[in-house]
Design a protein that fits this description.
Number of helices: 15
Number of strands: 0
Strand content: under 5%
Shape: globular
Largest sheet: none
Radius of gyration: 25 Å
Order of helices and strands: HHHHHHHHHHHHHHH
Amino acid sequence: MDLNQTKNLPFYIKLACVLFSLIALFYIVIIAKEILSPLIFSCLFSILLLPLASFFEFKLRLPRSAASMLSVLILLTSLSLILYIIGSQISNLADDWPLFQQQLNSSINIIQNWISTTFHINSTKQLTYLHTATTKVMASGTVVIGATLLSLSSMMLFLVFTFIYTFFFLLYRRLIKKFLTSVFLDENTALVHDIIEQVQYIIRKYIVGLLIEMAIVAAVVCLAFWALGIKYAILLGLITGLFNIIPYIGIFTALVLSTLITFATAAVMSKVIIVIIILVVVHLIDSNILLPLVVGSKVRINALITVLGVIIGEMIWGIPGMFLSIPVIAVLKIIFDRVESLKSWGIILGDEDHKESLEETDT
């Protein structure tokens, strides 16, 4: 069927086709999670490592396979170093488990007294309820441990396949580009090349800016917590920097975790309040000054689409979907902006231009 003839179709037929396509697409994405998730991460990593691999190949005259492998090993070493630092901090945190128990018991006593005073429920009934809940948790302890071990093994397999795919993407990058060009008609070759180049440029700029932003936020939080005598300042700073990659939801999660860890290790409530204030101030500075300055305005996605993308990504793929939602939306926006029939979708994904908003308010 000619594409021009589809414009004359009734609205309900167009709507049915769009809904059927979306349902089929989401079904395939959910079913193929184990394959697509490491593939998309590998694609992002390969775009990030492409200048480094090209430097090894063309400047140092290394074979493409060696240049690709060396780039992947550098990435693996960097991630292993970060995980080692976090793991060492968590092991130190485990040494304070008796302090956690003591702080938890004192907090439970305070809560029990408040419930008894406010709602007139005696301590015996509260202890009975807590004992029942504890028994249920302990009964399901083996299930939780089994699920944890299964998730750790799945994560290791996920990382192994991600780095293998990254190596192959770097090794066969010209073949992949040639394939993407040959799929479309000859008159669209220039457009396909433009989309590929823009995707590489913008995604690389976005990832590098995001890593710089993450490092700055982690360093500022670490220094602020260390200067104020907050325990585990390095761990809390790294947690804040890593979770800050997830828009809006990440900083809230880091705030909750930092508050709980500080509350468990410090008997002074003022330190908990200081932690909350510092993270809120850092988030405000990051979102209003650091993010536009470092990451830049190349990926202009409005806040509504950002939040919806993170939520939908979590519903489909869990935590990996939350990390991948913004890069995927950015790639879709690049494609929508350059395909004439899809420009309206690019408009709804993008952010409102400041100059255009001022002109509209003037009129």
